[in-house]
Amino acid sequence: TRTERVDLLVTDIGLLVTPPPGGVPRYGAEMCVVHQIEQAAIAIQGERIVRFGPEHDVRSWLGDTEIVETVSAGGRLVVPGFVDPHTHLVHGGSREHELSLKRSGMPYLEILAQGGGILSTVRATRAASEAALLEKASRSLDIMLLNGVTTIEAKSGYGLSLEDELKQLRVAKQLNSSHPVDLISTFMGGHAVPTEYADRSDEYVEFIVSKMMPEVALHGLAAFCDVFCEAGVFSISQSKRILEAGKQYGLISKIHADEIVSLGGAELAGEVGAISAEHLLAASDQGLGALAANGVIPVLLPGTSFNLGLKQHARAREMMDSYQLPVALATDYNPGSCPTESLQLIMMLASLNLKMTPEEILTACTINAAAAIGLASEIGSIEVGKQADITILDAPSLAYLPYHFGINHTFGVIKKGRIAVW
Ligand code: NIG
Ligand code: FE
């Protein structure tokens, strides 16, 4: 059936590449299958895609339908808007003062144990006004959009007090309504133990559960709950307490698991039924099995292992080939372990260090990333009925993205049917 009007028609798409329709995360050999259409067009009505395919087919379907606006992609590559499913977008300050410590070889967890690292950003975030946090986060979000990203997840976790956690989450909520990029929020009161609770981490966990969570839920400030399950941060039992309590408040579990030490975070992700488990560099075979058995999506963050100078990387190939896990990729944008907004740099690192193919990388940054934040039926592929979130790239092929690195290939971005970048 034809529509009575098309608001935006994108023509002269040299190559359209998208995960196939169906809205499910993809893995294994199937994951390599992406639909490719040469000389394509996309018709959009309101916020949604109403038709796409070879341009001559779309045109004959359109007949004499009114077309409000037409834009030419100029023969370029067109893909679904990229999705970044793991960021620590809202925070105060930066940590370049720790660069020399890092370069001299001090480990990440050691800097944290000495009151720096995350705790340094906690001080800066507490000191910042809500308006200042909004301004800073908005600039990062602009960079993401200019890089072709149309939806992101954003975590709290640099407040670590009731008021400061709520402050961070309100900023994300405000940006979601004022900025073209869509944000979905994660409550991460369990990101570190604040100094005022040093040596009383169990009490802090109870504070998170009894004081923070009810407020977060009451104000509808988050969809997910995350915790940094790591040696010297939150133990398996503390992490479990936080995630299980989060579920009582309707918050879906996510977990920073087995990043540095093999603690059993992946196993816990399976046990609590998390939607995703992040990092996973040190995840055990049993942990990967638990992810697969429980439909947990591994969100890999190769920018973090790269920037921490680790020799080890997440076992992406094994996850995909042996465990049939639908791998997603994200920036982990944060002021410590991964200060970059560039998902395109992450794509290059996924190719270099995780040995993912260009098709797997596209899948990991679109439909699988969408699935990791519960949005696979709305975004993540170019599909009739889905949100018209589309990125136009100045690249001749998909493989060109991880190949020609360190620059931004984005030419244009359409978000919810509107031209956001051109
Ligand atoms: O995902 N690992 C814990 N959290 C962040 C880093 C946060 C920071 O260093 O400020 C991460 O890498
Ligand atoms: Fe993170």
TrEMBL record:
Entry's EC annotation: 3.5.2.7
Pfam families reported in the protein's UniProt record: Amidohydro_1 (PF01979)
GO molecular function: imidazolonepropionase activity; iron ion binding; zinc ion binding
Co-factor requirement: Zn(2+); Fe(3+)
Family: Belongs to the metallo-dependent hydrolases superfamily. HutI family.
NCBIfam families, per database record: hutI
Name the UniProt record assigns to this protein: Imidazolonepropionase
Organism from which the protein derives: Paenibacillus albus
